[in-house]
Amino acid sequence: MSPEASADDVVDQPVRAQFEAFLDEHRGALNRCLDGLTEEQARRSLVPSRTTLLGLVKHATFVEKVWFNEAVTCRSRAEIGIPTTPDESFILNDDDTIATVREAHRAACEASRRATSSLGLDDTVRGNRRGPLPLRWVYLHVLRELAQHCGHADILREQLINE
């Protein structure tokens, strides 16, 4: 996703560099869950929910926009052009492909990096429904969400590959 350092490379770096390296590793891992899959495999539903591998990456794009656009800029989801609810962000349209969803995710991650580049970890973002939050909390929240979805993706991918 990013040419930034891996988490192993930032052990002795400032905490901001550590957060960003961990975020980028998880962003990349989630994006790579689509490697080598057909469009049909990426869309295949293996669980009762709307969760698919392609849907997970599409949802990750939503997450980036909620936490690093809506929360930072205070723009509404409608203004940003994203679904109202997280559940809706898993819905795949006919024109969603591995390539288009990956590109949207890549672009959202780049926009997230730009949006936070001038902020400090203790700076407050004010556009989230929870109210004002320090950027540090936002980074931790997004990291937690990405880690959970990477785990979901690992399990779904294993099911697909072993069919």
The gist of it:
This protein is an all-alpha fold and 163 residues long. It has one domain (7-161): dinb family like domain (Four Helix Bundle (Hemerythrin (Met), subunit A)), CATH 1.20.120.450. Helices cover 58% and strands 2% of the residues.
Describe the structure.
Strand 1 and strand 2 form a beta hairpin. The model has no long low-confidence stretch (mean pLDDT 95). Strands 1-2 form a two-stranded antiparallel sheet. Helix content is 58%, strand content 2%. Helix 1 (15-32) runs parallel beside helix 6 (135-161), helix 3 (53-73) packs parallel to helix 5 (98-116) and helix 3 (53-73) packs antiparallel against helix 6 (135-161). It has 163 residues and is mainly alpha-helical. It has helices at residues 15-32, 39-43, 53-73, 77-80, 98-116, 135-161; strands spanning 124-125, 133-134. It has a single domain (7-161), classed as Up-down Bundle (Four Helix Bundle (Hemerythrin (Met), subunit A)). This is Damage-inducible protein DinB. Pfam families: MST.
